[in-house]
Design goal:
Elements: H1 10-13, E1 26-32, E2 35-36, E3 46-47, H2 49-56, E4 61-68, H3 85-99, E5 107-114, H4 124-134, E6 139-145, H5 166-177, E7 181-185, H6 191-200, E8 205-208, H7 210-213, H8 224-239, E9 244-248, H9 269-287, E10 292-294, H10 307-317, H11 323-337
Parallel strand pairs: 1-4, 4-5, 5-6, 6-7, 7-8, 8-9, 9-10
Antiparallel strand pairs: 2-3
Helix pairs in contact: 3-4, 6-8, 8-9, 9-10
């Protein structure tokens, strides 16, 4: 895209420098990725332990992190349904390196969320067992992207009404039986469908990623008067499901409709907090702090701001909440949901 700054270029990010706010506040970041996509032209083709440590070492008190699958490092052979085990093996190695203490006092990937196809129904248990064996002390569940939209400009990541498929729900019940969690990504018009799914599998802990998949570009661009009220109504519906938690982040991605990544100088934390507040505070109001967790979603969100600026913004945004409510959103909810022992 001509005239647009390179996605999260490190020299560009360095143009906005800030002192870290409340550096002692404990943080468990519940959503980041590792990958090495050398053959694909994307922002941050490589994001491994060294890159993550460089980001989280910016001054905030990050105790632990949660890795979320990205279909990287799959096995090249064997049954298709088991190839995702390769990613968990890969991340288990990075997590073990972090736990050695050689990279600082962090527990990177203290919980690992992999990938398994719930459309296998009961047969998904074999895959889940293999993922568990690949990381006996860190594997905590899977993520399954169910995004579908009727507009041809929107990328579909699953079939229509995937969450309502009986076989898929059967697989989800196996996940629940094993005490594992489901991270889920959808587009905001699908949130009532996600709520129906949550009610159909009430014993399953579900984590909705990125404030429920708001879209403000393409067919949803320049339509905030319609889009935001619909998103709010759907958030209301989803929040009624007690087994669903909400991640507060992901808005640095271009599909959320903000222009931060196009600016000559990266946004500062005060301005970022002002932009984030209307959306994040609505989620907190509906779900309650005990079911919300701030997330970085790096490296995708790194196209718009640095880790230090983002967490400064979260801290500014959350100042009006109580000490226990802030502790939940920054640390305690994630540690509980993902069963992390720091």
């Amino acid at each position: 895209m001509e005239g647009i700054m390179p996605y999260g270029d490190l020299e560009w990010l360095a143009l906005t420098q800030e002192e870290t706010i409340e550096p002692d506040l404990p943080i468990c970041d519940p959503h980041h990725h590792f990958w090495d996509y050398r053959s694909i032209r994307i922002p941050y083709q490589r994001y491994l332990l060294h890159e993550l440590i460089a980001d989280i070492s910016s001054g905030h008190n990050v105790k632990s992190t949660v890795f979320i699958e990205t279909t990287a490092m799959y096995k090249l052979d064997g049954p298709m349904e088991l190839r995702s085990v390769g990613e968990v093996e890969f991340v288990q190695g990075l997590a073990a390196a972090s736990a050695s203490g050689l990279y600082g006092d962090y527990k990177a990937a203290a919980a690992i969320i992999g990938k398994a196809d719930l459309n296998l129904g009961d047969k998904v248990e074999v895959v889940l067992d293999a993922l568990q064996a690949a990381s006996p002390n860190r594997f905590r569940g899977i993520r399954y992207a169910c995004g579908w939209d009727s507009h041809p400009e929107v990328e579909n990541r699953a079939k229509k009404e995937q969450l309502l498929d009986p076989k898929f729900q059967q697989g989800a019940k196996i996940l629940a039986k094993k005490g594992l969690t489901l991270d889920n990504t959808v587009y905001f018009p699908q949130l009532p469908e996600l709520a129906a799914f949550a009610n159909a599998v009430p014993d399953l802990t579900i984590v909705s990623n990125h404030i429920g998949g708001l879209l403000r570009v393409g067919p949803y661009g320049h339509r905030d008067d319609e889009v935001i009220p619909e998103w709010k109504r759907n958030i209301d519906t989803l929040a009624e499901c007690p087994n669903v938690y909400m991640k507060l982040g992901g808005l640095g991605q271009p599909r959320y409709g903000f222009d931060w990544y196009t600016r000559e100088q990266p946004i500062d934390s005060i301005s970022l907090a002002e932009d984030l507040a209307p959306l994040l505070e609505y989620c907190i109001e509906k779900f309650g702090p005990e079911r919300c967790m701030f997330e970085c979603n790096f490296p995708p969100d790194k196209v718009s701001y640095s880790f230090n600026v983002l967490y400064n913004a979260f801290k500014i945004l959350s100042k009006s909440y109580s000490k226990s409510e802030r502790a939940a959103m920054f640390h305690d909810t994630a540690v509980t949901v993902y069963n992390i022992n720091e």
